[in-house]
UniProtKB/TrEMBL annotation:
The keyword Hydrolase does not apply. This is TetR/AcrR family transcriptional regulator. Keywords: DNA-binding. Residues 22-82 form the HTH tetR-type domain. It holds the Pfam family TetR_C_24. Residues 1-20 are annotated as: Disordered. Residues 45-64 bind DNA. It comes from the Bacteria. The keyword Ribosomal protein does not apply. It comes from Gordonia hydrophobica. PANTHER family: HTH-TYPE TRANSCRIPTIONAL REGULATOR PKSA, HTH-TYPE TRANSCRIPTIONAL REGULATOR RUTR. The lineage of its organism: Bacteria, Bacillati, Actinomycetota, Actinomycetes, Mycobacteriales. PROSITE patterns: HTH_TETR_1, HTH_TETR_2.
Amino acid sequence: MSADVGEGQPVKGSTRVSRRRDRRKAEIIKVANTVLADVGYSGMSLEDVAEQTDIAKATLYHYFSSKDELVAEALEALTQEVLRRLRAREEAVGEVPAREMLAALIDEQILILTETAPEVAAAFSWPRAWPEAFEEPMKDMRRRHDEVFRTVAERGIADGEFSVPNLNVTLQCLHGILNQASVWLRPEARSESSPELRADTVAAALRLFG
């Protein structure tokens, strides 16, 4: 009697196929975010994404059932990448006072918005025309992002490093500065040294916290 394949064991070759599918899906999501950054939700079409990914539109439907599903996954991928970068910066900085940690996170966020992932600014940093179905998911994405800064700010308040009458207002002002930084500090708009401008922006943002 031949042995049955054990429950939960992958069929030979299935892992390789899965990896190939995951790579292609990630490529589609990356292209979708580029298109979203260029033309927004209303200007984006699956035809554009398929063409730039060099696949047939019919093939695209093997990965995403609709434009909204693709956009939702693209926005979530952006959120996850931003959170990953912020966590990596926290780990690199290590155990430091809250003010130093907050300065590092603000600096990293500016880098993300202006150099490493400017599509984040296009998607999240100013109002754009989004269907109602995206309102709650995007609120949750913003909440998770805000929580990174809020946690450090709360530690600074508890340790006496920060004097903040209303943390919610202060964080809204901080995010406003970061959103504007994506315009002020983008490479094509500046003539001064990028590190110096970032440092000045970080210093200005920290003044919000006393």
